[in-house]
């Protein structure tokens, strides 16, 4: 799983890829990280940097409600991109994302958190030891991200200028959305949308249903 964003290390890896330390059968697995990164990492290091307190109930307080940190969304996609540093710059400049936190191991981005306003996204470089690999756009896409914004035309043009491939130019759909479809320079497919009609969810769904009937006729 991706690394906790609050934990950092300035140790330099020998190669991309990592496995987060955890207890296995009561044995500290610092040796796993040591072998991967060719550094001397000891159990004492993790005792210093990792919490040893065991909490099992959802926290609520100044910074957390019902186990969800304030500012986070309950569903947060994680994507694998390469190089992740360039992807962070692309999503910041083209989509207006705010970088919340980046955890690096040398030149490897192990975990980055981006805030898109009302949605969060995390990303990392490939980590083969955790079975996190980059997508192969030549074989098609098994998922697509959706981004609502205030100006789909402007975002699409900024993405184009930054190297994205525009699959579908901006157009207005019966749902009340103006949208475009792009593939970013890192192989991730996006639907970029702006709601241009103030419709209720029911009315938007009704329109789409009526449109779908005409497509299947």
TrEMBL record:
Region ranges (Disordered): 1-20
Name by which UniProt lists this protein: Putative glyoxalase superfamily protein PhnB
InterPro entries named in the record: Glyas_Bleomycin-R_OHBP_Dase, Glyas_Fos-R_dOase_dom, VOC_core
Domain called VOC: residue spans: 71-195
């Amino acid at each position: 799983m991706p690394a906790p964003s609050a934990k950092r290390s300035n140790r330099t890896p020998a190669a991309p890829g990592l496995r987060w330390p955890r207890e296995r059968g009561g044995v500290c697995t610092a040796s796993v990280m040591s072998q991967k990164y060719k550094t001397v990492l000891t159990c004492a290091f993790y005792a210093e940097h990792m919490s040893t307190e065991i909490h099992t109930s959802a926290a609520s307080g100044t910074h957390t409600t019902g186990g969800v940190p304030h500012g986070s969304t309950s569903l947060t996609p994680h994507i694998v991109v390469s190089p992740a540093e360039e992807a962070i710059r692309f999503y910041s400049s083209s989509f207006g994302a705010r970088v919340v936190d980046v955890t690096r191991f040398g030149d490897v981005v192990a975990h980055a958190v981006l805030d898109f306003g009302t949605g969060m996204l995390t990303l990392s470089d490939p980590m083969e030891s955790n079975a996190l690999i980059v997508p192969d756009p030549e074989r098609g896409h098994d998922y697509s991200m959706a981004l609502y914004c205030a100006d789909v035309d402007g975002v699409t043009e900024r993405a184009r200028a930054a190297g994205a491939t525009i699959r579908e130019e901006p157009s207005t759909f019966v749902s009340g959305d103006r949208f475009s479809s792009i593939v970013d320079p890192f192989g991730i497919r996006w639907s970029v949308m702006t709601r241009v009609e103030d419709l209720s969810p029911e009315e938007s769904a009704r329109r789409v249903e009526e449109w779908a009937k005409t497509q299947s006729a």
